[in-house]
Specification:
This protein is 11% helix and 62% strand. It has 125 residues and is mainly β. Strands 1, 2, 3, 4, 5, 6, 7, 8 and 9 form a 9-stranded antiparallel β-sheet that branches. The protein is globular, with a radius of gyration of 17 Å. The N and C termini lie far apart (41 Å).
């Protein structure tokens, strides 16, 4: 199997249940005085696949109970413009699901090249 074939498999999987996301990116830019200022931008819409990674996560609520939360993820093409790291914060909203914050971007490698990206999300609701 070639790298291009693996990339096509990713695109085929995304096409089975696609969502269009517009990433809102906040980049920390040096302000020249020892701090930083946020520089915000909205990227062009991209097609990815939203999926549930784990349904077992629970969180305590202020009402004294526990709420079951799902851990969401994205499957993205190898060249998707989505980031997480020091100085960069990507987020997006979906009308039917709410707001999500990118917590981790994991490149999936095949023969030493990126064939897709797995993205771990935090649901902000």
């Amino acid at each position: 199997m070639t790298v291009d074939e693996r990339r096509k498999i990713t695109l085929d999987e995304i096409a089975k249940n696609p969502v269009t996301v517009t990433i809102h990116r906040v980049v920390k830019v040096d302000d020249g005085a020892g701090g930083w200022v946020p520089q915000e931008s909205d990227l062009e819409a991209q097609t990815m696949r939203l999926f549930i990674m784990d349904r077992r996560r629970t969180e305590s609520t202020s009402e004294g109970g526990q709420q079951q939360l799902s851990q969401w993820g994205l499957l993205a093409a190898h060249n998707a413009d989505i980031q997480h790291g020091t100085g960069v914060e990507d987020s997006f909203s979906l009308p039917e699901r709410g707001k999500f914050l990118v917590k981790q971007v994991i490149p999936v490698l095949y023969l030493g090249e990126v064939v897709s990206k797995q993205v771990v999300l935090e649901e902000l609701t």
